[in-house]
Amino acid sequence: MQQAKQAIWICPSCQQKNRVHTSKHNPTCGRCHTQLDLGTVQKLDEQTFESVLQKSDIPVLVDFWAPWCGPCRMIAPMLEQLARKYAGQLIVAKVNTDDEARIAQRFGIRALPTIALFSQGREVDRQMGALPLPQMERWLQSKLHF
Ligand SMILES: [Zn+2]
Fold it and tell me: Which residues have a catalytic role annotated?
């Protein structure tokens, strides 16, 4: 039997950090009772980034992007697809590097988009630049053995 895994999920309505079981189908926010959809892309900032990365039992894929970056906009729908497909197995998150310059600096982000994969709070690998979905999935699978 698989061990119950937990993840930190930021409520999109009130920004509460919720600890959720990744196998639970309809978790709700402990504060405002908004339904939390684990198949969506999380937006992370200085307040939430560390908790989600460090306290989630499942890997976290972080898209470092900026609103003015064309390739970033191009891959946004792809990240939403990955979030939906791997709901409960993988957290897909994005960090706006214009708003969160300190996070970007800390991780030495020099190209946009940079897609970094974290497991247990540590960076496993990163991809610089936009990749087509099949290549992105192959890369993910080679790192995570889904
Ligand atoms: Zn809430």
Answer: 69, 72
For residue 114, the CA-to-ligand 1 centroid distance in Å is 29
The pLDDT-based confidence of 14 (bands split at 50, 70, 90) is very high
pTM for the predicted model, two decimal places: 0.95
The mean per-residue pLDDT over the stretch 2-8 comes to 85
Structure-block tokens of residue 51: 């908790």
* Domains in the chain with CATH codes: 39-144 (3.40.30.10)
